[in-house]
Amino acid sequence: MTGNPQTNSHSNGQAPDSATDLTANSQTRGALRDAVELGLPTTIADLCALVRIPSVSWAAFDPAQVAASADAVAALVRGLDVFETVEIVQAGIGPASSGGGTELGQPAILASRPARNGRPTVLLYAHHDVQPPGKDEDWESDPFTPTVRGDRLYGRGAADDKAGVMAHIASIRALVAAVGPDFDLGIALFIEGEEEFGSRSFATFLDENREALRGDVIVVADSNNWDINTPAITTALRGNVTLRLTVRTLAHASHSGMFGGAVPDAMLATIKLLSTLYNQDGSVAVAGLTSIDVPTPDYSEDQLRAETGLLPGVSPIGHGSILSRIWSQPALTVTGIDAPTVDNASNTLTPAVTVRLSTRIAPGQSAVQAAAAIETHLRENAPFGAIVEIDDVDTGEPFLVDTSGWAVTEARSAMTDGWGVPPVDIGVGGSIPFIADLVRVFPAAQILVTGVEDPDSRAHSPNESLHLGVFKRAVLSEAFLLGSLNERTGH
After folding, report:
1. Residue 314 DSSP one-character state
2. What is the distance between the alpha carbons of residues 380 and 354, in angstroms, rounded to a whole number?
3. What is the four-CA torsion angle of 232, 110, 489, 181, rounded to 10 degrees?
4. Which residue from 80, 60, 63, 78 is spatially nearest to 129, judged by alpha carbons?
5. Where are the beta strands (DSSP E) in 231-379?
């Protein structure tokens, strides 16, 4: 979606009262700019130290590493010396009404300082856990050894989202350097430890720490920019439905030569069933999944090919503008399959096949409604009477940001000054489901979804990286935002 940058607005989203106000704001931003510049080497060094900790939050990985990462982030937060409280907190997985269940989520950092003299409170969110690295041979350097090549810092979590963590730390450092530690802005800091594993304790965490997290503005630093020269505010996020699908046709395996041609095996049934999920052009063919019609910026097929590595001769899928396919239409991906491997293949009719399906749903649709539509489709289209089992269903709501509030105006001004060009409003094909929980718990708060990534960051993929110029401008923009909020009254 195209933005409507407001580059001439005052720092509080209102007309300036006097030339003195503009001069004071200009002086503050000058001091913030100097502080960010001087602090950048330390900021990058701290980021590298975090990247060295393999804080993968998935169940199969060592939770001690996530705990070590939480300790390291907490030490950085305490070092700011501006918060009244800094805690490492674990919430239960499950409804808060039942104590959150007996299993605890991964450790998160929670810090807070109250606002004074009528200033607003801002909640800063990021996450310190990371995706699994994948195969070492797919990386050009060790995934947990931060490595600078050219103008990019490579490493798992270098962009997603330890750079988001450090953007918050660095912008607060700059604010302290510019105006002193006794500022009036209220700040709550929430650095989650399991975003990459589904934020399973997030809802409980919010309910149990509601007052400590309450803010007038919420900054979620976990998204993209348009390119390395243009900032973005994310205004639309797709939701998600993931599930495990098992297809069964036989009580046991049988010889494919003896019975092939008469008995459908599970692989055949699975292939035919999965094919019903797609139209001829590759778009999703599940009745009940909806799209929205919104304008999108220009984005060429050549740009798509360059950013995704689409091979020559392989065509894009879907219909409509390319960005509408990514931002405002559903998409369905088979992300995993359990079946005999090629190396272990035998002449056997497979009795059962299990796949993982990941569906992205367009803003405006209920995730529960979408999950029901997908299940109905799978059951009604099972070939040969195959038995279909669906379990391990996980849902996340899509989100549309209200861009009419004063906080967005403040953010546009900060980004324009920090980057030298106004931001654009973008949608994101990925999902941040917990934003729906933030809206549920804090319905009056204004949500700003920002980020440090760019189209070449390759978050979740081998050779994930952070563009250091983008990082500097993102830190500067957030510092400008905090400076403006610290001067704002009448919110």
Report:
1. P
2. 18
3. -100
4. 63
5. 232-237, 239-248, 254-255, 331-338, 348-349, 352-361
The 10s digit of each residue's pLDDT in 236-271 is: 999 999 999 999 999 999 999 999 999 999 999 999
What is the gyration radius of the CA atoms in the chain, in angstroms?
Answer: 24
Which single residue is written with the structure tokens 């090629």? 342
The gap from C-alpha 132 to its chain's centroid, in whole angstroms, comes to 15
202 vs 55, 143, 258, 401, CA distance in Å?
A: 18, 27, 53, 20
**pTM for the full model?**
0.84
* Low-confidence residues of the chain: pLDDT under 50: 1-20, 96-100
Q: For 55-86, b where at least 16 C-beta lie within 10 A, e where not — what string?
A: bbbeeebebebbbbbbebbbebbeebebbeeb
Q: Quick one: angle between helices 468-486 and 162-179, nearest 10?
A: 50
Spatial distance between the Cα atoms of 100 and 380, rounded to a whole number of angstroms? 36
Token pair for 51: 């990247």
Q: Within a 13 Å sphere around the CA of 316, how many CA atoms are in the beta-carbon half?
A: 19
DSSP state for residue 96 in the 8-state scheme = G
Residue range 189-219, pLDDT digits in tens: 999 999 998 888 999 999 999 999 999 999 9
Q: Which residues contact 67 (CB under 8 A, 6 or more apart)?
A: 107
What confidence score (pLDDT) does residue 2 get?
Answer: 28
Residue with tokens 């689409």: 310
pLDDT of residue 267: 97
Element (H, E) at 110: strand 108-113
> Which residue ranges form the domains of the chain, and what is each CATH number?
19-236+399-486 (3.40.630.10), 239-293+328-396 (3.30.70.360)
Residue 437 pLDDT? 87
SS3 string, 230-253, reads: ECEEEEEECEEEEEEEEEECCCCC
Taking CA atoms, 26 is separated from 11, 21, 29, 441, 463, in Å, by 10, 9, 5, 36, 39
Q: Tokens standing for 161?
A: 């989202």
